[in-house]
């Protein structure tokens, strides 16, 4: 699946991205928007107002922003990018809450960095090495083995097709609220964003 500019008519909407993390995720999506030349009028990464990073606090920020946004339309997409790594039972409640509010949940298990690794490793390799990918530090070690500049996401964007394919293979039941194994649903957001290139 190769992403090329599409000429078909797009649904007029804006996409608002809210992230649990305050550094890696916003930087990734801002550079994604820039790399693929997506209009900032259509896609906006929302800066965090607080340092609280729980899924519940992200939902509160989303609610506040949505309520106070003078430009909102019924077609707009509000997406939260969160990790499973440390939220336990609260995660299930938060994901259900977000879905009931109509928010897209781009969940990663255990953390967002697994999405970054998917740009370089396929599903079979990730599953084979699952015991070496338990923490953010473990995953970052694997990412850095590819001799890429971790601060330059252009290395990732050239491989976006591979990341989406890997994520889809690792998520055979995307309708379930939580990932059943290691993986990332960031691909759901990326597929929507790619409509705008």
Structural class: alpha/beta
Q: What is the mean predicted local confidence, pLDDT?
A: 88
C-alpha end-to-end distance: 14 Å
Write down the domain tally.
Answer: 1
Strand order of the largest sheet: 2-1-3-4-5
Shape: globular
Poorly predicted residue ranges: none
Strand content: 5-15%
What Rg is obtained from the alpha carbons, in whole angstroms? Answer: 16 Å
Order of helices and strands: EHEHEHEHHHHHEH
Question: Got a strand count?
Answer: 5
How would you portray this structure in words?
With 197 residues, this protein is of the alpha/beta class. The chain has one domain. It contains nine helices and five strands. It has a five-stranded mixed β-sheet, sandwiched between helices. It is globular. The mean pLDDT is 88.
Summarize the structure.
The chain is of the alpha/beta class and 197 residues long. The protein is 41% helix and 12% strand.
Q: How is the topology of this model organized?
A:
Blueprint: E1 15-19, H1 24-35, E2 43-45, H2 55-68, E3 77-83, H3 89-100, E4 104-109, H4 113-117, H5 123-128, H6 136-144, H7 154-157, H8 160-170, E5 183-184, H9 186-193
Parallel strand pairs: 1-2, 1-3, 3-4
Antiparallel strand pairs: 4-5
Helix pairs in contact: 8-9
Name a few traits of the molecule:
197 residues; single chain; alpha/beta; 12% strand; 9 helices; 5 strands; five-stranded mixed beta sheet; globular
């Amino acid at each position: 699946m190769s992403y090329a500019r599409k000429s078909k008519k797009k649904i007029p909407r804006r996409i608002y991205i809210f992230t649990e993390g305050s550094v890696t995720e916003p930087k990734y999506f801002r550079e994604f928007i820039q790399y693929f030349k997506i209009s900032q009028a259509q896609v906006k990464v929302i800066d965090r107002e607080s340092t609280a990073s729980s899924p519940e606090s992200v939902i509160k920020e989303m609610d506040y922003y949505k309520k106070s946004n003078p430009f909102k339309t019924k077609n707009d997409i509000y997406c939260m990018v969160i990790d499973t790594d440390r939220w336990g039972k609260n995660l299930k409640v938060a994901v259900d809450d977000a879905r009931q509010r109509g928010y897209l949940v781009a969940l990663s298990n255990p953390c967002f960095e697994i999405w970054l690794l998917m740009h370089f490793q396929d599903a079979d390799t990730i599953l084979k090495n699952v015991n070496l990918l338990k923490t953010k530090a473990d995953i970052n070690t694997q990412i850095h083995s590819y001799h890429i500049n971790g601060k330059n996401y252009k290395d990732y964007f050239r491989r976006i097709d591979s990341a989406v394919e890997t994520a889809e293979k690792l998520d055979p039941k995307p309708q379930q609220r939580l990932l059943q194994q290691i993986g990332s649903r960031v691909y759901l957001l990326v597929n929507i964003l790619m409509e705008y290139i």
